[in-house]
Specification:
By secondary structure, this protein is an alpha+beta fold. The chain has helices at residues 14-24, 27-35, 54-57, 94-101, 109-114, 129-134, 137-146, 162-171, 188-198, 212-225, 260-270, 280-290, 348-364, 399-409, 446-455, 476-479, 491-508; strands spanning 42-47, 82-88, 116-120, 153-157, 205-209, 231-236, 245-249, 272-273, 292-296, 303-304, 306-312, 318-329, 335-341, 369-380, 383-392, 412-414, 419-421, 427-437, 467-471, 481-488. It has 17 helices and 20 strands. The strands form three sheets. Strands 10, 11, 12, 13, 14, 15, 16, 17, 18, 19 and 20 form an eleven-stranded antiparallel sheet that branches. It has a five-stranded antiparallel sheet with strand order 5-9-6-7-8, with helices on both faces. The chain has a four-stranded parallel sheet with strand order 3-2-1-4. Helix 1 crosses helix 8, helix 9 (188-198) packs across helix 13 (348-364) and helix 10 crosses helix 11 (260-270).
């Protein structure tokens, strides 16, 4: 248990939990009184901390720049009495901030800028941002001093861990997010239990595995139940974006059922991890700490990886926000690279219905805030089978693209069709990625990117409500990596815009000499 000294109760202590529960009890009244009124004064403290396994995070190129993904929330400055306090580990380049502020429609830039306070920790270490904030008493004092009316303020976080709970208690603000004591329902094991309770189809497998002995036994039992199974997936309970997954190929004769000793001998050498440079020893060490699951690999052609995004409001009402088809890569095709909106016509409404069932179970357990459910979808004859494979009780890689569309197009998601419509009734689609990456992009500054965007007509056009919005811009010069949301009137137009964006970036850097 970590102590925060005289500033507050110990992290994870009973006193802290009681204080946090009391703060969260304010959310329903705050939601009803403030959220429904766009003219109501409010303060939103945005903490884009990736409070997850640090060792896994460090395998992602430019991961410290992922704090910029929540800059999409600067669109809240369209609400004329809203103040935003945005915290980061290190300062964000002014040109990047200006880029997002200039996307605001109907609000003078100066008016929006006066209601935005950017604070940072001057700390590039791999510790979670929220932990850095907690270690800086003067920064905490500054945040408190900037919140004029705490009764109209709340925290918005990428995910909620014990660190965010401590921050909420020290600031005296509720979080519009999941209580850390309920996060087990977002683990891989908790997700499988939730799917069964909701009556949602999931892959054959085993959960609540504790160590390599459990892992070997689960693989043996899974093969015994499915003697023709060719592959199985091993997942860390707290893995994310596919980085905590590993693939095991049986590579034995159909019908052959080895004993546990065979798996003990074969798995350490043959398990293939998705995370870059991950080894068996590193993976199994995390498995012992986190626990995990084993699932049958779902075969099928065609096969898709859709997801549904939902929100449970403080009144316990479940709302479907969006659906996506995920774009996956990595050694075993399990790493999240990007997404297309919306998910395919053939299964979109079915995964929305499944997401609503999962949401009802989570709401009954007290979960509040955003969550997503990932699926593997395959066609069997004339039927589509949607296997729910995990729950993410947090914002995710599909959150910021949809928020950009929603605020820029100023329309609404139609749950009956699963489509997004502008105020004039036109549809909008997009292709989004966090992984537009090429070594030739290294050295491009934010100003260079903006110049290319304007000169090559890639920027978002407010009048036509189509175009490109970039993010992760801070990672471009050092890592040659950035993100983009390409918005078009239909799926073909959105994909064409994405392809054009990638082509133009390569054209503009074609003469770059590699070191």
């Amino acid at each position: 248990m970590v102590s925060l000294g005289a500033a507050g109760p110990a992290v994870g202590s009973g006193a802290e939990r009681e204080a946090f529960t009391a703060l969260q009890g304010r959310l329903p009244e705050l939601y009803q009184r403030v959220f429904s009124d766009p003219m109501k004064p409010r303060t939103v403290v945005i903490v884009p901390s990736l409070s997850m396994d640090a060792a896994t995070l460090q395998k992602i190129d430019g991961v410290h720049h992922y704090e910029e993904r929540m800059l999409c929330m600067l669109t809240l400055l369209r609400l004329p009495r809203t103040k935003i306090i945005y915290l980061t580990s290190q300062a964000i380049a002014p040109s990047v901030v200006d880029y997002f502020l200039n996307l605001l429609q109907g609000v003078p830039l100066q008016h929006a800028r006066q209601r935005l306070l950017l604070l940072n920790c001057y700390d590039g270490s791999p510790k979670p941002l929220t932990q850095k904030i907690l270690e800086r008493p003067r920064l905490l004092q500054r945040i408190r001093a900037e919140i004029v009316a705490p009764e109209n303020a709340h925290l918005s976080c990428f995910n909620v861990s014990e660190w965010e709970r401590s921050l909420a208690v020290l600031l005296g603000l509720p979080i519009y997010g999941c209580d850390p004591d309920l996060l087990s329902w977002g683990s891989k094991s908790g997700g499988r239990r939730c799917f069964r309770e909701a009556g949602v189809l999931t892959a054959d497998g085993f959960e609540d595995l504790r160590d390599e002995r459990d892992l070997f036994q689960a693989l043996a039992d899974l093969r015994a139940r499915n003697p023709h199974l060719r592959k199985a997936v091993v997942k860390l309970n707290e893995g994310f974006s596919g980085e905590g997954n590993a693939l095991f190929r049986f590579d034995i004769e159909p019908g052959e059922v080895p004993d546990v000793a065979w798996y003990a001998a074969q798995v350490p050498a043959r398990l293939r991890c998705e995370a870059k440079d991950e080894t068996w020893s590193g993976f199994i060490d995390k498995f012992r700490r986190m626990g995990g699951i084993v699932e049958a690999w779902i075969e099928g052609d065609p096969k898709f990886s859709p997801s549904v995004q939902c929100r449970i409001n403080p009144m316990a009402a479940v709302r479907i926000i969006s659906t996506h088809d995920q774009v996956l890569g990595g050694p075993g095709g399990q790493i999240f690279l990007g997404c297309t909106f919306p998910a395919g016509d053939a299964y979109r409404l079915a995964i929305q219905a499944a997401g609503a069932k999962v949401g009802a179970v989570l709401a009954a357990k007290g979960v509040v805030g955003r969550f997503g459910v990932d699926f593997i979808t395959v066609r069997q004859g004339d039927q589509w089978l949607n296997y729910a494979i995990e729950i993410n009780l947090r914002k995710g890689g599909t959150t910021h693209p949809f928020m950009m569309l929603d605020y820029l197009a100023d329309g609404s998601f139609d749950a009956e069709s699963g489509l997004y419509r502008t105020p004039s009734g036109e549809t909008r689609f997009y292709v989004a990625s966090d992984n537009l990456e090429d070594p030739r992009f290294i050295g491009l500054s934010p100003e260079d990117l903006i110049d290319i965007s304007v000169c090559r007509d890639l920027h978002f056009h407010g009048a036509g409500q189509e175009g490109v919005v970039f993010h992760l811009i801070g990672a471009l010069s050092e890592f040659g990596k950035l993100g983009a949301v390409c918005i078009g009137a239909d799926a073909v137009a959105a994909q064409a815009l994405f392809d054009r964006t990638r082509r133009i970036l390569h054209e503009e850097t074609a003469g770059v000499v590699q070191p």
